[in-house]
């Protein structure tokens, strides 16, 4: 998105109606600049990963809430758990995002231990992402576990 915003001349995106953004949080300034520059009215933050095979959430940015990754997508289940204890967390508590759905993968081929490390005892995929949900059951991704530096 940033490259398209900065491109000179800018790309012709007149036929573009809907944009889905995933992979990382969409910075508000980038989303707004992209939407304004290319007249995009329908911009969505989504959350997924290869092992899920489809969307886990779908967000709406017309409210200006670019940090939200959205509500749980149809047929999917999401839980937030404590990183250390794996206890289920409540609203507005940061923890690991775990996802389960009808098309989620069941494991890596001939890699049983790697599969066990990725899928919890309830069948939820451990995403390695940190997030929370609010009182409206809107989910937010705030960080990646691998990017957190622990200091003792």
Structural commentary:
This protein is an alpha+beta fold. It has one domain (2-138): Luciferase, domain 3, CATH 2.30.38.10. It has 3 helices and 8 strands, in the order αβαβββββαββ. It has helices at 2-6, 28-37, 112-118; strands spanning 18-21, 42-47, 57-58, 68-72, 77-81, 95-100, 125-133, 139-144. Pfam families: AMP-binding. GO terms for molecular function: CoA-ligase activity; monooxygenase activity.
How are the SSEs placed, and which strands pair?
Blueprint: H1 2-6, E1 18-21, H2 28-37, E2 42-47, E3 57-58, E4 68-72, E5 77-81, E6 95-100, H3 112-118, E7 125-133, E8 139-144
Parallel strand pairs: 1-2
Antiparallel strand pairs: 2-3, 3-4, 4-8, 5-6, 6-7, 7-8
Q: Which key phrases capture this entry?
A:
152 residues; alpha+beta; Luciferase, domain 3; 3 helices; 8 strands; 14% helix
């Amino acid at each position: 998105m940033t490259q398209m915003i900065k491109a000179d001349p800018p790309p012709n995106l007149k036929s573009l109606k809907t944009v889905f953004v995933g992979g990382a949080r969409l910075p508000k300034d980038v989303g707004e600049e992209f939407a304004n520059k290319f007249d995009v009215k329908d911009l969505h933050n989504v959350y997924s990963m290869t092992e899920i095979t489809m969307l886990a959430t779908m967000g709406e940015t017309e409210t200006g809430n670019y940090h939200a990754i959205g509500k749980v997508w149809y047929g999917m289940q999401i839980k937030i758990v404590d990183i250390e204890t794996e206890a289920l967390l409540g609203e507005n508590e940061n923890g690991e995002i775990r996802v389960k759905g009808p098309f989620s993968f069941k494991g890596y081929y001939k890699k049983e231990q790697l599969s066990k490390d990725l899928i919890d005892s309830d069948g939820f995929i451990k995403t390695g992402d940190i997030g929370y949900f609010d009182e409206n059951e809107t989910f937010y991704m705030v960080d990646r576990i691998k990017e957190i530096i622990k200091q003792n």
